[in-house]
Amino acid sequence: MRAVVSRVTEAAVTVDGDLVGALERPGLLVLLGVHADDSEQQCATMARKLHELRVLRDEESCASTGSPLLVVSQFTLYGDTRKGRRPSWTSAARPEHAEPLVDAVVSALRERGATVATGRFGAMMSVHSVNDGPFTVLVEV
Predict the structure, then answer these.
(1) DSSP-assigned letters across all residues of the chain
(2) Nearest by Cα to 70 from 135, 18, 131, 10
(3) Which residues in the chain show pLDDT less than 50?
(4) Is 75 an annotated catalytic residue?
(5) Annotated catalytic residue, options 9, 42, 76, 136
(6) Radius of gyration of the chain (CA)
(7) Which of 41, 42, 74, 90 is catalytic?
(8) Catalytic: which of 9, 65, 75, 136?
(9) What is the pLDDT of residues 3-31, one digit of tens each?
C-alpha cells in the first residue's frame, strides 16, 4: 500500500461538478494506492502511519492536532513506467480488491478518532489542493 501525502491548507474533490469531499481546515491530502498483493493487514498500519505522521507545522500530526484528512483512491500510484512510454498497471489492485481496502483504511482512521473526507472510488475526480510548504511525502507499508 502506498500513499502520497501532502500537507495542505485546503483541499476538495469534485465529481461531475459536485463536491464530494473537502477539508474545512488545514490537514492532509492523501492519495492512496493499493497494490495487487495488499490485504487487510496493511490497512490498520497505513491508517496509524497517516494519523500519526508528524508532518504538520511544528512537527505535529493529525492525531495530536485533530487536523482532518482527505483520502482519495489513486490506482495510478502503482503505474510502472520503466519500459516504454505507456505505464503498466499490473501492480495496481483490481477495483473489486482495492475498494474494500481503501474503505478499511478510512474506517480505521475514523476508529482512531480522525476526521476523514473522501473522494468517490472509481469516479473521474477533480482534486483541488493548496499545498502548504510545499510539503509532500511518500508513505509505504
Answers:
(1) -EEEEEEEEEEEEEETTEEEEE-SSSEEEEEEE-BTT--THHHHHHHHHHHH---BGGGB-HHHH---EEEEE-GGGG-B-SSSSS-B-TTBPPHHHHHHHHHHHHHHHHHTT--EEE--TTS-EEEEEEEEEEEEEEEE-
(2) 10
(3) none
(4) yes
(5) 76
(6) 14
(7) 74
(8) 75
(9) 999 999 999 999 999 999 999 999 999 99
